[in-house]
Design brief:
There is one protein chain. Helices cover 20% and strands 38% of the residues. It has three helices and eight strands; from the N terminus they run βαβαβββαβββ. It has helices at 14-25, 35-38, 93-104, and strands spanning 3-10, 31-34, 53-60, 63-69, 84-89, 108-115, 121-126, 132-137. It has an eight-stranded mixed sheet with strand order 2-3-4-1-5-8-7-6.
Length: 141
């Protein structure tokens, strides 16, 4: 069965928020990726945004709380509106595609499901009810 995990967008203070969450829930971050870690000619990152969080994850029991900062070129998150995504970790590639195809039907696809260079699969979209989702599958886990 797929695992569901909350994902939050921040306006540049994801690391500060997650340091606080870590102090409350305990544990250690399972992953921290900064925008400078993924910068390339095709995806340039300004020096003032290089240290922002592209992905951070904190295990809480069998689940993860994850987040990212929004780059200035993407605008700001309206903190009075939905700024969260529901992240689903599928158990198989087939399940990831089934969940993506089902949930994204009649919705708005931000990033279609694709295989990444590291062999993982990932998609982002808003369903027809306006709820934001991410679906991922990692064959190594």
């Amino acid at each position: 069965m797929a695992q569901i995990n909350p994902h939050i967008n921040f306006n540049g203070n994801a690391e500060e928020a997650f340091t606080f969450y870590k102090s409350v829930f305990g544990g250690e971050f399972s992953k921290i990726i900064r925008f400078k870690d993924i910068a390339s000619e095709e995806f340039p990152i300004s020096g003032k945004e290089a240290h922002k969080i592209m992905h951070i994850a904190l295990p809480i029991g069998q689940n993860f709380l994850s987040a990212n900062d929004i780059l200035e070129i993407m605008g700001r998150v309206n903190e009075n509106e939905n700024r969260s995504k529901i992240a689903i970790t599928a158990e198989s590639k087939e399940e990831a595609y089934k969940l993506f195809n089902g949930l994204s039907a009649d919705g708005e696809i931000e990033m279609p499901i694709n295989e990444n260079p590291d062999g993982t699969y990932f998609a982002m979209f808003r369903d027809r009810f306006g709820i934001e989702w991410m679906v991922k599958f990692d064959p190594k886990k």
